Each structure stands twice: as C-alpha cells, then as structure tokens.
C-alpha cells in the first residue's frame, strides 16, 4: 500500500494545464534512467562521516560507495547523452568557474593530496550536471526524483530508529536523531526532512499529489525533523514555505486558503505551546552557548583572524573537509573564503543572486514556487551549514532550482526538401 501511495504521489505523468496554471508541461522524452542519475548524485553527497552505526561501517568502504555512485552517475549520464547535447545554464557555468580557484588553491597541496581528490570529485559532479541540462525544461520531473531519493534516506533513518533506538538517539548528540544504519548527523536528517516537507506541500497546493499520499510523506518527515532538534532546517522550512506560497497567493486560491489557515494555526500553537516550543528550540543550552551559536562563533573568529598571504586571500587554501583547527566551520561563506578565497565567495554570491533574480522575473507558477523555496532554504542554511562551494546536497538543491527555472525547450521545425518548380510550356502560359 505504501508503495502505491508513493507511486501516486510522485508519478511522473504529464501535467495538465488545468491542474497547474502557467506551468510548463512535463518532458515527454525524459528517460527514466535520468532519475537514477539524480539518485546517484544524491547518494554521493550523503558523505562518509557521521554518527556511530549499529553495524560499524569502515569510512573507506563508505567513501568507495559514494565515489562509485558519482562515477556511475557520470557514466550513465554520458551514455544517455552520447551526442553531448547540453543547454545553456548560468548556474552550471558559474559552478564551472568555481573550479578555477579550487584547482589553483588545491595545487599548492597545503591541505594535502585530498584537495586534488575533492577537485576531481567536484569536476565529475559539475560534468554530470552539464549532461543533465539537456532535460532541464522547467517541469516537475526532477522534483519527483529529488523527493524519491531523500524519502528513501528518511525511510532508512526511521528503520534505524526502530532497530536500535539507543544508537539512533545517542547521548553524545544530546538525544538527537542520527543515522543508525548509515552515518548521518542530525543537521543532515533535518535538512532532508525539511526539503521533502516543503516540496510536497507545494505539490499538494499545485494539485500534483492527492492528500492521502501527501500525508504519508509529510507526517513521518515532520516527526523525524522534530526528533533531530535542528533549528536551522526548521527555520529554513518555515521561511522558505512562506516565500514560496506567497509567490502563489495571487494566482492560487488553494495557496491563499493554506496560507490563512497556517497563520491561524501558528498563532494558536504559539500561544498554547509556547513553553514547549521554547524548550525544544533551546535544546537545554545555556544563554551563553546560544549567543555564540553553539561554539561556531569562536571558530569563525579564529578563522578570520588567521594570517593569510595575498594569494591565500584571493584563491583560498584549497578544498578541505570544511574544518579549521580540527573544528567544523559550519558556515558556507567562511568555508568558501577559507578554501576558494574571495574569488570563490564572489562566484557563489553571484550564483545565488542569479537564481534569485531569475525566479523573481518568472511568471507565477508551481515550478517557480518550488525554486523560490529551494533558493531561500539554501540561503538561510548557508549561515550555519557549509556546502555551497563543493559537491553537496545544497548544490544539488540549487541545481534542482535551476532546472525548474529553465525555459521549456522549443521544438525545432523539421526542414523540408525544396520541391522543384514544374516546367510550364510557353504556349500554356499564353
């Protein structure tokens, strides 16, 4: 039954104009294997470091699986697009430019040979996106691929919670939910749950999924999100949905009703459960710990105060594991500055601004609302999470937004052979 609900919720059939006004139709010629390529890219970005699992998995084995997924994704995308037909994409072009400071800074080997390995990984990631641009036409096909993959990850997390609750909610993470079968941290799980909830809510408002199927996806995702106690993902979800639904208010009566009911329910919940919400948000932390963002501010101050040469300021230190002094940076902008310098920061900022500007210029539609949600979520999360400068789920979210904002491909007319004019005798012409 659950499989039937998922199939009904995420079926990739053509969208009718009545169900989604102003939206581009689903691509008729998109191979099903494109969804496999997208899932392999998502698998590569899961990472290899995280919580302790029920069955200890060697990090080398996990890295082989994730890198194998990326190589397989590139090979499959190349097999699907042997003629190398690609579409112009400002997003992927800017990502390609980001490779320049990455390679220049990593060539110094200040952070070891791992920097060159990460450059090769980023190159394969971007190359696969270039090959997939052939099927970027503003439809919701990639949204369904996105939800399928990350919902499967959440099912794996829920299975770990059932199999070993103590491992899934360990004390060293403050009782927050982690991956017990695959090493996933609470922020990762919270991110995946928030993205799934937001996209499914928008599909429900656009009548692309029935209510029963939406409940099957949204309710378990909300439970897992609450168990992670991830503040960034929760705020990103709420603010992203407000902006996305706000873009549909003028053209969708369902969006207006949902927005009104959400405001009323939020006010009632804020009054009735204010103490419980405050306790959940604080997670038992002191006021001092909250003020320095759980120790992040100390790492940021140390990173900015570290001496750097002019070349290191411009090009960075090279791609690393997003840490400084053995502690995670947990800020996309400082991580990009540390690894790719001021040039990298400029490129990433331009990337966000271009996507946001294109989204604002598009007419109201469901794909545009999904893109606004993804862009705003990534922009909010960039303050306390790293990943905008390297192959990561955040770049995959933004790639999905770019595919939603792409203009539909125009069909080219088939050239016809010129028919020679029939010779008419002179006497007939007279």
From TrEMBL:
Lineage: Bacteria, Bacillati, Actinomycetota, Actinomycetes, Kitasatosporales
Protein name: O-antigen ligase domain-containing protein
Keywords: Ligase, Membrane, Transmembrane, Transmembrane helix
Coiled coil: none
PANTHER family per UniProt: LIPOPOLYSACCHARIDE BIOSYNTHESIS PROTEIN PA4999-RELATED (PTHR37422:SF13), TEICHURONIC ACID BIOSYNTHESIS PROTEIN TUAE (PTHR37422)
Residue spans crossing the bilayer: 36-55, 61-82, 89-109, 115-137, 149-169, 189-205, 212-228, 234-251, 258-281, 341-361
A Gene Ontology molecular function term of the record: ligase activity
